[in-house]
Amino acid sequence: NAGVTQTPKFQVLKTGQSMTLQCAQDMNHNSMYWYRQDPGMGLRLIYYSASEGTTDKGEVPNGYNVSRLNKREFSLRLESAAPSQTSVYFCASSDPSGGVNEQFFGPGTRLTVL
Amino acid sequence: QKEVEQNSGPLSVPEGAIASLNCTYSDRVSQSFFWYRQYSGKSPELIMSIYSNGDKEDGRFTAQLNKASQYVSLLIRDSQPSDSATYLCAVQGSGGYQKVTFGTGTKLQVIP
Hints:
A: mainly beta, seven-stranded mixed beta sheet, globular, B: mainly beta, six-stranded mixed beta sheet, 11 strands
């Protein structure tokens, strides 16, 4: 049982390049999330998927797109990377059907945009 | 006013002492509250959840919730150097998708 996995672990991009961050969970959770974490800013929600087939914007969606490929997988795409997108990206999943949204995080992707 | 506020620290305590971490929140109808531990360079790890007023104990950890004061705290008894980490408070609001808002965290240092 791997929990939440993310690839890649590290990435360096040049301004304007594109890339996709991959996330998968094996906990049979309905909901999945993408966060970014910056010093002094805490975790900020980029996009979330409440269930397979649905996605919605979070607090900081500009410059990102997402795809909920199936129940297990949720990807985050940067179409044209900017230095402001240098951050640590975390994927999380949860099963809030019982009313409590305990989220479980993947190991993160450390992205640098030059 | 931030939705979830924590003192950034660092909070330094000697080994064996009680560490007290505090968090306040602004949404009066918040439902559930979580404490995450995050080691440097690692991802957040859920260590406690609390939903009702009062105390909830799990090993050396005790979470305390006071909804009237909009205050939640985490006590760590017999603190160990391995407890040195940043502790994130998270609050689940009343939003339609059960939005969880995270504080910026308190850095705890346990001095041997």
